[in-house]
Amino acid sequence: MITKIVEVKGLYKSYLQAGHGRLDVIQNVNFEIGKSQTVAITGQSGSGKTTLMALLAGLDTPDAGEILIDGQNLNFMNEDALAKFRAKNIGIIFQQFHLMPHLVAEENVSLPLEILKAKDIKDRTDLALKEVGLESRKSHLPSQLSGGECQRVAIARAIVVKPAILLADEPTGNLDTKTGEQVANLLFDLVANSAMTLIVVTHNMELANRCDRAFKLDAGQLVEL
Question: Residue 14 in contact with residue 24, Cβ under 8 Å?
Fold first, then answer.
């Protein structure tokens, strides 16, 4: 029996558009994800995939509905509690990397551990960099790294706390085909060797087809493929 780690119930999200009223991005979305599953969320640009990802990460709040992560309802957490919960339980990988430009690779990777005031920060940071094959590049700034290397640093930062859930928003979207494939292979290998659940937002159907399950977001509705 699969244990649920994500439960989404009656989720709605809309935004006010100047001169156009409200745009309903997410409309009555319901789904569940089991522990250690890999799940893709697909859809056209502007369909609301990144909005859904932000809601799952607790970076945005829904107009209605509930999101439960490992049984914890995000609606009941204040900003401080939500930030701590996210830092401990949710790793996030962005298409644009979102690395701190003035910090070298190992400093970028250790940030979540610093936030949590964790022990053994150096050892855990070194291990995460080794897992993504960048131990020899740990003293380099993002500007001294290739796009693929920057995304590997971002992956190391996301996995360094061993989160229950890994959220990846177009993780290969900023990379050439060969580098994107290498990063995808790394991502799936890391998830397969851990108990993490992967939720990946992508328009790349080859990437989506590698997942256990795939959904399509269209006109605010989420349908399993």
Answer: yes
